[in-house]
Amino acid sequence: MQKYHNIVILTGAGISAESGLATFRSSNGLWNNHPVDKVATIEAFEQNPAYVHDFYNELKPEVFKARPNAAHIALAKLQKKYPSPVSIITQNVDTLHEKAGSTHVLHIHGQIDQAVCLNCGKIISATSDIDTETICPFCQTMGMMKPNIVFFGENLLCMDEVDILLQHCDLFISIGTSGVVFPAASFVQTAKSVGAQTYEFNLEPTSNNFYFDHHIMGQAGITVPEFVEKLLAQEEN
Ligand code: APR
Q: Has 109 been annotated as catalytic?
């Protein structure tokens, strides 16, 4: 294992599974009980905002109750102790990386504890329910607040910074994502194209299998701390 100069980590719902949060596409995944086209597209929000608000308002209590697991904690330790930059890009709308102590986490699909005003574009904290009668505290418009979650059909967030990170990374680690949603699923290809070593942490091989140099199968709460300890030990030698 070499010494790296720019480590980029992409996480998906699988890293939060051991914290008790449902993933999207597993047998009891979120999308099994709530079709994507009813709660996760901009068209659904425009046609039935109250139904979409209810879905995310119902999700909030369990997301906020969840605690970071050993995988989140290991990544926060790596960020603190590794001598080169360790960047975390997450598809997750929970804030378990931050609760574990990670900093500057790039939430490319947004955050469930925030809302965005479709009138003025301002983002507010939204730990309580928002609905079609919520008034924007900045422009005072009612009914234009939307969960700050990127719906299918919307542009991802932080992509300028993500592109720069990927172009300069020499270690790309993907943890707990099925690799079926783009553009996040293509990040490994960019990393490979610039010569990075690529690792996939999952319970099983994913559709992105081909692009990864290394596959570490198992529960992220076990495999990620082990890997972090190896990276840190390498730095100490
Ligand atoms: N350890 C490691 N991997 C795990 C664990 C675990 N304990 N539990 C589940 N996984 C893996 C599954 O094998 C699966 O490959 O995590 C992955 C979760 O895949 P998805 O449910 O598709 O979630 P994700 O890849 O994050 O979805 C991407 O799709 O709907 C959109 O916006 C949503 O951000 C989400 C995006």
A: yes
